Amino acid sequence: MTLANDNPIALLLQEPEGKRLEFKRDARSPRPWLKSIVAFANSAGGRLVFGVTDDRQVVGIENPLDEEERLANLIADSIAPRLVPNIEMTTVDAKTLLMIEVFLSGARPHFIKAEGMEGGTYVRLGSTNRQADAALIGELKRSVNGGSFDELPMPSLTLEDLDRAAIIQAFGTQRILDDQALLSLKLISHDQGRMVPTRGGILLFGKDRTQHFSDAWVQCGRFYGREKLDILDHAEIIAPLPQTVDQVILFLQKHAYRGADLSAIRRKDRWSIPLSILREAIINALVHGDYAQRGAPIRVVFLDNRIEIESPGILLPGLTIDEIKQGTSRIRNHVIARVFRELHLIEQWGTGVRRIFAEAKAEGLPEPIIEEIGMRLRLTIYLAVEHRSTRSGEHTAAQQEPGDQSRDQSRDQSVRVLQSLSDSELSASEIARSLDMPKKSGALKRAIKALLEEGMVEYTLPDKPNSRLQTYRLTEKGFKAITEKSAKKEQT
């Protein structure tokens, strides 16, 4: 294939598949590419190119005029609400390609008619399509209407369910906090002729927040080494969200001190983690977490070489990772964001992520990484100084002989894969990313194969084991193995 470098299709063929791009050899099996069309329309738009193999060989499309008409009819007949993307033909090396360009739709959520809205709504997650659950479908609808999850009233509750003392503690004496002020902050709202808390009010200052939002808390963990295998310390932070910021920072500081002189613990130059960056990242997770999702809390993981901050929910429709790195921002939780701004926890709208990257560069740190993994968003911040966290009597990785390291890696590989699947279904490439491994690692492939044979892990598409859309999930046996390992750690 010989193409001029300034040819738009040449540039497109050089790009990796991702949130806004997918290649198909042909369109003979409609369902997979219809899912992609739906996912593009619901997420951030995208392009689907037919006539290109997985290894980027241009094979073209036979009878492109007939195929173009067939694709248009299938899209019109199979997707609701009606979707009319652009379908174009382009020629490469005398071969014709078909390209469908889909834009973010203002009529979302779109779904495959034959599967219904509940079963046929898809979103784009990296280079794969994921079925949207009821909570995500609700967010897709709200994103069109302009509302947010945390503005909705909770009619089953009363104002007594708000912790007034916590509200006063957060705001201090800077303003009068009567019902009118709480209405202005949207911590409460009118519903059926009475005032009730909003979801944002309960998330921020609810007396029994986790009773109503079971995952609205922060799980912190300090692990040995560079993998999430052996835990050194952990904390469960269930406090009003504004107080949560400082409590998470205190947990990180507890494990960040690198000297033995405890009297100097408050000296700024003694910290070996970027506190200002981490504070911004924690605030960002609390403000933009999707509290409608169920399954796991916000997680802050401290490893020897990095800190990972993971929050529920993927990017809002219309956003990509590249765009938020450049400063594009949309607010998921209007009430929480407003209160954090009033408390001066947020300095300026839309600058948080950009400031994280700018400060990391200024401090000479590796560039942070933002990933959509499962139905969660992970921000990884790498450390300038590696923190050693070894137990008495154990060797560090640097002290081990090469043969010892090889045996340890072989023994731990399966456990690492099981751990990565403990929260959600993942593809092989997503497992690799979560473990900082090469996508085509032979060790990873062997570990997955062994776990499948042992019945610890199973395919989500058992009839298509080699499908490009294949993902893996824990079986009951695999879940039990992880639970037993965690119980043993706690006992030790």
Explain what you see.
The chain has 492 residues and is an alpha+beta fold. The protein folds into 4 domains: 8-144, 2-Layer Sandwich (Methyltransferase, Cobalt-precorrin-4 Transmethylase, Domain 2), CATH 3.30.950; 149-212, no CATH class; 218-382, Heat Shock Protein 90, CATH 3.30.565.60; 402-491, Winged helix-like DNA-binding domain superfamily/Winged helix DNA-binding domain (Arc Repressor Mutant, subunit A, Orthogonal Bundle), CATH 1.10.10. 38% of the residues lie in helices and 18% in strands. It contains 18 helices and 18 strands. The chain has helices at residues 8-14, 30-42, 64-78, 116-120, 134-145, 164-171, 179-184, 199-205, 209-212, 241-254, 275-288, 321-325, 334-342, 352-362, 402-420, 428-434, 442-454, 476-491; strands spanning 21-24, 46-50, 79-80, 86-92, 95-102, 111-112, 122-125, 128-131, 188-191, 194-197, 218-223, 231-237, 298-302, 306-312, 369-373, 376-382, 457-459, 472-474. A 6-stranded mixed β-sheet has the order 12-11-13-14-16-15, with helices on one face. Helix 11 (275-288) runs antiparallel to helix 14 (352-362) and helix 15 (402-420) crosses helix 17. The longest helix has 19 residues, at 402-420. The model is unreliable at 1-5, 258-270 and 392-410 (pLDDT under 50).
Short descriptors:
492 residues; alpha+beta; globular; 6-stranded mixed sheet; disordered N terminus; Methyltransferase, Cobalt-precorrin-4 Transmethylase, Domain 2; Heat Shock Protein 90
